[in-house]
Write a structure and sequence with these properties.
By secondary structure, the chain is of the alpha+beta class. The chain is built from six helices and ten strands, in the order H-E-E-E-E-E-E-H-H-H-H-E-H-E-E-E. It has a five-stranded antiparallel sheet with strand order 4-5-8-9-10, sandwiched between helices. Strand 8 and strand 9 form a beta hairpin. Helix 2 crosses helix 3 and helix 2 runs antiparallel to helix 6.
């Protein structure tokens, strides 16, 4: 007697594998959906962090500009002490006779704190006379300046003539430089044939891609000026390495109108704003403010210099949190505030 044959025996063999495949497919779909949601949440978190940082920068910059315009240029920097009614129109006090150090914001790179809701913004002030007017540099001095920023001697020597050719007329061609023909060959915008007008324009010079180190561009944002004006250089307000290198160069070659050591702040200031963001990132923004006393409707001119978010592993402490590259390990409580009015002068 033969056993009965089931017509469904073949289908029963596939029931479990099919169920497992369905579960696996649902798991994959769920995982993809979860990752998409997590990614969207991460993007939203980063966007909110950027918005918070921008809002903090806006408030900190407004506070800084007000402090700059309402203070008095003095020996060593800005005298933040209010003017007494009895001494209106008098010359500001010297740094040595200021009531206390907190009322003098030094223009040699001193960092102060702008305490904004939810985050601290560090603000570094350097007087404009301590910055190098890059368009005014002769080639040898330009090479030295680029090297201080981290470029090798060979890279600086290759790029310097291209920077010079970008600024002068096409009739002056330097060995190793580049004029309109070379720019057209590479499909790049043709040279301006005028002094570099702003920080970002330097990236248009052929060879800028070879100098793409983030630290090099931060160096330029902190130490270089652009535009056709010829400036007085005051070593007292310059970065120590720049001052040591260029005081002698400028004195010997008369690159600028002259080197002055009077130590008095000028009408131009470079402010570097910085705040720590999530995941060990550091957001930096550099702006230049110039007093324009003759323009009643607009008492100052603002130039956007630099804005970037970078990972700074070399400035992270053991907890993985980023610490400020411009103030090191200093705690916010150890820094004077940006705006610190004092008692009227006697």
């Amino acid at each position: 007697m033969t056993a009965p044959t089931s017509h469904h025996s073949g289908q029963q063999g596939f029931a479990l594998p099919f169920a497992l495949m369905a579960i696996a497919a649902m798991a994959i779909i769920t995982a993809i959906s979860f990752r998409a949601i997590s990614g969207a949440a991460s993007v939203m978190t980063e966007l909110e962090a950027d918005i918070d940082a921008d809002a903090a920068f806006i408030s900190a910059e407004a506070e800084t500009v007000f402090t700059f315009l309402s203070s008095s240029p003095d020996l060593g920097g800005l005298n933040l002490a209010p003017t007494s009614p009895n001494t209106e129109g008098a010359q500001p006090q010297s740094a040595a006779s200021a009531p206390n150090a907190a009322l003098l914001w030094r223009g040699d790179g001193e960092v102060r704190l702008s305490d904004q809701p939810g985050r601290s913004v560090y603000v570094q002030y350097r007087d404009g006379s301590g910055l190098i007017s890059l368009p005014s540099l002769k080639e040898d001095a330009l090479i030295a300046f680029l090297q201080l920023g981290g470029l090798s001697r060979s890279s600086a020597e290759a790029w310097a003539p291209r920077i010079q050719d970008y600024q002068d007329q096409d009739t002056t061609r330097r060995p190793g430089g580049a004029e309109r023909a070379e720019y057209r060959l590479f499909g790049a915008a043709t040279p301006a044939d005028s002094p570099l007008r702003h920080y970002e324009e330097l990236s248009l010079v052929l060879g800028a891609g070879d100098a793409n180190s983030a630290e090099f561009w931060r160096y330029l944002a902190r130490n270089a000026r652009f535009g056709g004006d010829t400036a007085i250089f005051k070593p007292a307000f310059a970065n120590d390495a720049v001052a040591a290198q260029f005081s002698t160069i400028f004195g010997d070659n008369d690159i600028f109108e002259g080197v002055q050591d009077d130590g008095r702040a000028t009408a131009t200031a470079r402010f570097l704003l910085e705040t720590a963001t999530e995941n060990g990132l550091t957001h930096q923004r550099a702006v230049e403010i110039i007093r324009t006393a003759t323009a009643v409707d607009k008492p100052y001119r603002r130039t956007w210099i630099y804005d970037n978010v970078d990972v700074n592993p070399e400035t992270a402490d053991r907890s993985g949190r980023a610490r400020s590259p411009i103030v090191g390990s200093a705690e916010p409580g150890a820094l004077a505030p940006v705006f610190q009015p004092g008692a009227p002068l006697d």
